[in-house]
Amino acid sequence: MAEHVESEAGVEGNTRRIEASVVTDFSDRMSYGGYLDLPTLLSAQRPISRPEHHDELLFIIQHQTTELWLKLVLHELETARDLMRADELGRALKCVARVKHIQKTLTEQWSVLATLTPAEYAQFRGVLGNASGFQSFQYRAVEFVLGNKNAKMLAVFEADPEATAVLTAALETPSLYDEFLRLLARAGYPIPASVLERDVTQAWTFAPELVPVFAQIYAHTDEHWAAYETCEELVDLEDNFQLWRFRHLKTVERIIGNKRGTGGSSGATFLQRALELTFFPELYAVRTEIPG
Fold this sequence. Notes:
Blueprint: H1 2-9, E1 11-12, E2 15-16, H2 32-36, H3 38-42, H4 56-85, H5 89-113, H6 118-122, H7 137-145, H8 161-172, H9 176-186, H10 193-196, H11 211-219, H12 225-256, H13 268-274, H14 281-289
Antiparallel strand pairs: 1-2
GO molecular function, one term: metal ion binding
Keywords: Dioxygenase, Heme, Iron, Metal-binding, Oxidoreductase, Tryptophan catabolism
Pathway: Amino-acid degradation; L-tryptophan degradation via kynurenine pathway; L-kynurenine from L-tryptophan: step 1/2
């Protein structure tokens, strides 16, 4: 009996046998391709260069996969924000942990696009018109959820009602950081009223009055472990985001140098300024206050 099973499931002539129990008839069953709607997904790559340039498929897939990952990042961050609002910090941090892994994948993904040489990109860049990653509403929504809000960005999406709705909701809803600070206040930490009552449609700016609060958390980590762990998880999020921005900048410099962006920006110079943006400045400032 054992010999029969080994022969049926083994390898012969460098070919693996298909086990008898493997389902092969999908005439009335859900298949892998059906569940993932692969016909739609795999037909969404439509190069427009004529004659079609070999490397345009790379360019499209790079950006489409980024958008898929951003969709999941947004899903997880919004859930983390809602869980913090419900004082479910542990579950919120599980979502944050997943985002951190996605961020690493997104950052590493730039190395694939970096295989596109300046000469290769120049041969089809013109067909992009004014299409640019600057117009990624999901990227902007992620920034908004993390607190880096900018209502002026909505003008870019006026022709897209669905994108405008997503961004408007993110603009008007407290950020992940807002909800963390509110959670701390409910837990008895002395979060100033000016912070709790701020206009959440505005970009977060440095609040020096929060630094002493975080200094106490960092000075007595055993007593404030949940708050301390969350602070460090948020720092990880910002670090990862900045690494992504930096790799974006260096990839753009590598491929187009200092040319203007297709969307009309100054290109690399514009991306360089994004590195000056911050999400949780107090969590960096508190490090200066830690003795030692």
